Amino acid sequence: MRRKMAAGNWKMNGSVAGLDMISALASAHSDSGCDIVICPPAHLLMSAAKRAGTGPVAVGAQDCHASDKGAHTGDIAAPMIAETGAAYVITGHSERRETYGETDAAVRDKSAAAQGCGLVPIVCIGESLEQREAGEALPVIRAQLENSVPEGSTGATLVVAYEPIWAIGTGKIPTLDQIAEVHTALRADLVARFGPEGDKIRLLYGGSVKPGNAADIFGTKDVDGALVGGASLTADDFSPIIAALTAS
Ligand code: 13P
Fold first, then answer.
1. What local confidence, expressed as pLDDT, does residue 195 receive?
2. What is the pLDDT of residue 223?
3. Beta partners for 206?
4. Cα–Cα 20 to 30 A to 44, which of 20, 140, 170, 176?
5. Cα 17 to middle of ligand 1, angstroms
6. Nearest CA to ligand 1 atom 9
7. Phi and psi of 247, rounded to 5°?
8. Ligand 1 site, residue 229, Cβ cutoff 6 A
9. Is 228 a pocket residue for ligand 1 (Cβ < 6 Å)?
10. Distance (Å) from CA 71 to ligand 1 centroid
């Protein structure tokens, strides 16, 4: 049985005051049986991890560099993230692939660096609207999976998030059949590559997950949770999503 996960990607939002949400989630979901992760901007990581303590909420970063250290102004290395007390790092988010030209190979190297210091990468993949409309969604996503995920990954060292680019921040989501089709294909590829471990790797869906659609999405085959953007910014929105995951 794969443990469910609700991960919130705050993107370039949030403040010290906003970290109160971690305590609110911790008390509301102390017994959820799910992994709850908050990924704030880098300047909040250490405070967030302190606030989370040993409670039910874990902390993740939104990106890391592939090198451990060096002349990389503005970047943050995986061991630095680990030092804050964070346990996860999002890699290969489409906003970074698009804005910074991150390739699958770069995402794989970042993810391997994360794994190398005990962080669990949440590797993001997903097709554009043009690719979906051209009938290329599955081959595009499967190639991203193959090339962005490091060798030797296991259920304990990797999470994958399927985020169709056209569903991010738009209020549009794929049909449940489309989500199931992608997740089933990703699951088959993970098992083909990693054997029984591939069956233990969590597959999250991301893109306009809201309190109103969460239960349907979590009821979809091979969906082990969600990577949530806008609706992870307040406890009022994120809490019902976690509750829906717990009930699923
Ligand atoms: P939204 O939930 O705001 O669509 O964002 C999804 C996302 O990009 C999470 O990484």
1. 97
2. 98
3. 227
4. 170
5. 22
6. 229
7. -80, -10
8. yes
9. yes
10. 31
- Binding site membership of 179 for ligand 1 (Cβ less than 6 Å): no
Instruction: Using CA atoms of 112, 44, 99, 142 in order, give the dihedral in degrees to the nearest 10.
Output: 40
Q: Which residue has the tokens 């190297």?
A: 109
Domain, as residue range, for 57: 4-247
| The two three-digit tokens of residue 48, written as one number | 């967030």
Does pTM top 0.85 for this prediction?
Answer: yes
Ligand 1 atom nearest the C-alpha of 168 is: 4
The 3-state DSSP class for residue 120 equals: strand
With tokens 């804050």, the residue in question is: 84
Tally of domains within the chain = 1
Atom 7, ligand 1: which residue's CA is nearest? 229
Collapsing DSSP to helix, strand or coil, 124 comes out as strand
Q: What is the pLDDT of residue 1?
A: 82
| Active centre residues (catalytic) | 93, 163
Structure token pair of residue 218: 């979590």
Instruction: State the CATH number of the domain containing residue 26.
Output: 3.20.20.70
**Is any ligand 1 atom within 6 A of the Cβ of residue 207?**
yes
Positions in the chain whose pLDDT score sits under 70: none
